[in-house]
From TrEMBL:
Gene name for this UniProt entry: LOC111132833
Location(s), subcellular: Mitochondrion
GO CC annotations, alphabetized: mitochondrial small ribosomal subunit
Transmembrane parts of this sequence: none
A molecular-function term among this protein's GO annotations: iron-sulfur cluster binding
Entry keyword Iron-sulfur: yes
Keyword Oxidoreductase annotated: no
Protein name: Methyltransferase-like protein 17, mitochondrial isoform X2
Species the sequence originates in: Crassostrea virginica (Eastern oyster)
Function: Mitochondrial ribosome (mitoribosome) assembly factor. Binds at the interface of the head and body domains of the mitochondrial small ribosomal subunit (mt-SSU), occluding the mRNA channel and preventing compaction of the head domain towards the body. Probable inactive methyltransferase: retains the characteristic folding and ability to bind S-adenosyl-L-methionine, but it probably lost its methyltransferase activity.
PANTHER family (alphabetical): 37S RIBOSOMAL PROTEIN S22 (PTHR13184), METHYLTRANSFERASE-LIKE PROTEIN 17, MITOCHONDRIAL (PTHR13184:SF5)
Length: 531
């Protein structure tokens, strides 16, 4: 009996090894290993979590000693009727639709009209949804893990006759040529089923076709969302560092030039050079056509000093005030090439380095990969500082909520083209902004940020509930009471939204109490389930 079990285990081990060596030979690509351990866990065969096992955010209350930051209160606008808390200094996200420049809107309308494409709206929507659901290739470890799970499923689904026959063959000390052929055919059948099922459940990465048709559809579906997201991210630099006046901008993966328009809308007079890098000629051609108001024969562009190249400038060309890399990292399927790109862009950064990607789990993992890489550099030098959105340097608290990372994303309301069913669309994105050198001396550097959702107001009880990412690296669902924490902090919390900073200074000796009487808390009064 023991010999039979050992022979069976040996057979299954041989199947695994054969599967591992034949995946690539049969046309199934095995990507490189992913060494970023913090965000790597993609086993879809684990048992589904019950409701009680959902990620839980600790539910706490601010003690009575926590009040509104006096520095923040001094910067709240005042009128004859009192403070205007809607404009408190922690407001980083616009409460209104971001206004699209008329020149940009007219240029796009001319291009779309001249294209003569009658299916542009439907094609643009398909591309929008495809880009939002795009992922990186799965790692070798993930594929092997899936294959092993499939192996157990396939072998358990064998009929009783097949299992009995295999056991009889394995129990024999010696096999005839016909029996060896039968056992080999069974092994190949199991391998074939594993590979077929693995092919069905695996995401198949494909590079984007940056041709003329793609550039047109991309302009229709992504120009306005990209502009709104980048304007929101860059406006935080202008609000929190008003003395900063960029002179040059490097845009890696410039695409159709949305970063140029966003930067120009905030600093129209200071930027003297826009260096746009994209190796797709049709995307550069579309970006120039938009800057020429749709007329390709026009000599000058509405925004001067914009240069398009297919390669990064040499380091001898100097550094740039702002380096922007938006929605580009997904085009680099291999981790080594992504990290090499990040190192080259950081070397060319003089002040701010801005990275933006989709607000999905995959986009968040890309942002965390860059964060992890640059913070490794900061161990050797103190030149790397996180400006936004993280108010802290330690490990991202989102990674501690569950085995799979919960994406830290934000939302901006984008206007839609006239004639569409909705006048606006909610665009979610993940981003991070690094500052080379010391951060500008400002009270906002120590304020917690509101994440996940907007603030919930409980008006009859005069308290507000918001999820905060705090400077000490903690994440919590906090109750802010008008009676306990003061009217000023309560009003600023009520006027804040997802992505804003809350003007409160948390001291190290402030003990944050777990909430035991909130209707939002769980049965054991330790947290709130994340929906």
């Amino acid at each position: 009996m023991t010999e039979r079990i050992l022979r069976r285990r040996k057979c299954l081990t041989h199947i695994r090894r054969t599967l591992h060596t034949t995946l690539s030979a049969d046309g199934f690509q095995l990507p490189e290993e992913d060494h970023f351990k913090e965000t790597h866990n993609r086993n879809p065969f684990k048992e589904r979590k019950s409701v009680s096992e959902k990620p839980i955010i600790p539910h706490r209350s601010f003690p009575s000693s926590v009040k509104a930051d006096p520095v923040g209160m001094e910067r709240v606008p005042k009128t004859d009727s009192g403070h205007q808390f809607k404009k408190h200094p922690g407001c980083m996200k616009s409460k209104k639709l971001i206004e699209i420049p008329k020149i940009l809107e007219n240029s796009l309308n001319v291009i779309f009209k001249d294209s003569g494409c009658n299916t542009l709206e439907s094609d643009g929507l398909k591309l929008y949804n495809y880009l939002k659901a795009r992922k990186l290739p799965e790692s070798r470890t993930s594929l092997i893990s899936k294959a092993r799970q499939l192996e157990s499923q396939v072998t358990s689904n064998l009929s009783k006759e097949q299992k009995t026959k295999i056991e009889e063959l394995l129990a024999q000390p010696e096999l005839t040529a016909e029996e060896e052929k039968e056992l080999k055919n069974t092994e190949e059948d199991i391998l074939h089923k594993i590979k077929m099922n693995l092919h069905k459940i695996t995401y198949h990465y494909e590079p984007l076709p940056y041709d003329e048709d793609f550039a047109l559809r991309y302009s229709y579906s992504r120009m306005i969302p990209n502009y709104c997201v980048l304007t929101t991210c860059l406006s935080e630099i202008k609000k929190r560092d008003p003395a900063f006046e960029p002179e040059s901008v490097l845009n890696m993966g410039s695409g159709i030039g949305s970063a140029v328009w966003a930067t120009h809308s905030l600093w129209p007079d200071t930027v003297r050079q826009y260096y746009c890098v994209d190796d797709a000629p049709e995307m550069n051609k579309m970006a120039m056509q938009i800057l020429k108001e749709g007329n390709v024969n026009r000599l000058n562009m509405v925004i001067p000093n914009v240069y398009f190249r297919d390669k990064l400038p040499s380091q001898r060309s100097g550094q740039f005030s702002i380096v922007i890399c938006a929605y580009t990292l997904m085009d680099f399927p291999h981790r080594k090439s992504r990290l090499q790109l990040i190192s080259e862009l950081w070397d060319r950064t003089k002040d701010y380095f801005v990275l933006v990607d989709v607000g999905t789990r995959c986009g968040f993992e890309l942002i965390q990969e860059v964060r992890h890489r640059l913070l490794k550099i900061s161990e050797q030098t103190d030149q790397v500082n996180i400006f936004a959105p993280c108010p802290n340097i330690p490990r991202c608290p989102m990674l501690n909520l569950s085995e799979k990372p919960v994406p830290c994303n934000f939302e901006v309301q984008c206007p839609q083209w006239k004639g569409q069913s909705q006048d606006r669309i909610a665009e979610r994105y993940s981003y991070i902004i690094f500052k080379k050198g010391e951060l500008a001396s400002d009270a906002t550097n120590n304020w917690p940020r509101i994440v996940f959702k907007d603030v919930i107001q409980k008006r009859p009880k005069d308290y507000a509930i918001c999820t905060l990412c705090c400077p000490d690296g903690s994440l919590g669902r906090y109750d802010i009471s008008k009676r306990r924490n003061g009217r000023e902090l309560y009003r600023m919390a009520c006027e804040s939204q997802w992505g804003d900073l809350l003007p409160v200074k948390l001291e190290e000796n402030d003990e944050l109490h777990f909430n035991s009487d909130s209707e939002e808390s769980t049965e054991n009064n330790t947290g709130t389930k994340l929906s």
